[in-house]
Amino acid sequence: MGLENPSAENLKIILDDLAETLGVVNRSIMDPEDYDLDKYDDLKFMYDMIKQKGKLSASETRAFIDELRSVRK
């Protein structure tokens, strides 16, 4: 799976995987239509960090979700 190039499909994959990894209950904050492809690199960076780190603490999860909110449209 090549997620290096910004595309609507890759954005959806990243957001779906982030929602699953973070255990997001309110999936409405993960709607790909609410994110600009201009912010793709920021989202990809967060995605890579979470994948590298693995399990997050509750406070880290909240911080990542807050950061996701900050890059929404």
Would you kindly provide a written description of the structure presented here, covering whatever features stand out?
The protein is an all-alpha fold. The protein is built from 3 helices and no strands.
Features:
3 helices, mainly alpha
Count all strands and give the number. 0
H and E order: HHH
User: How far apart, in Å, are the first and last alpha carbons?
Assistant: 26 Å
Indicate the overall shape: globular
Give the oligomeric state: single chain
Give the helix/strand class. mainly alpha
Residue stretches low in confidence (pLDDT < 50, at least 5 long) are none
Give a short overview:
This protein has 73 residues and is mainly α.
Secondary-structure blueprint of this entry?
Elements: H1 8-22, H2 40-53, H3 58-70
Helix pairs in contact: 1-2
